[in-house]
Amino acid sequence: MRKKRRRESPDGVRRVERKMEQLLEMPSGALSGNCHMEFYGNRQAMIEGCRGVLEYEEGLVRLSTDTGILKFTGRSLSLTCLTGDSAVISGFILSVTFGG
């Protein structure tokens, strides 16, 4: 007889994520797959949860995330660091928009 596999409900998974974040002293939501952004004035932005670059020009950078698309506009924008799940944008950031 085959054992039935117990499936976690989304609420159960979220409880486990919250507990792991507390145990590892991580920021809330760090394990949920959400996008996290940190801005250093209007000159630099760090984006965690980046899934890829959709468009890259001097005045425009569009990034794909799990929850949508981030669009940065400005002057002399550049990707100074790009890894598998994060990006750093430098330059003079004028606006950031989020869309699906």
Helices and strands, with pairings:
Layout: H1 10-23, E1 36-40, E2 44-48, E3 50-57, E4 60-65, E5 68-82, E6 86-99
Antiparallel strand pairs: 1-2, 2-6, 3-4, 4-5, 5-6
Describe the fold and architecture:
It contains one helix and six strands, in the order H-E-E-E-E-E-E. It is elongated, with a radius of gyration of 17 Å. The termini are far apart. It has a domain at 33-99: Immunoglobulin-like (Sandwich). With 100 residues, the protein is mostly beta strands. The protein has one helix at residues 10-23; strands at 36-40, 44-48, 50-57, 60-65, 68-82, 86-99.
Second rung of CATH, namely the architecture of the domain at 33-99: Sandwich
Which descriptor suits the 3D outline? elongated
**CATH class label of the domain at 33-99:** Mainly Beta
Q: What's the Cα radius of gyration?
A: 17 Å
Low-confidence stretches: none
Give keywords:
100 residues, mainly beta, Immunoglobulin-like, 6-stranded antiparallel sheet, 1 helix
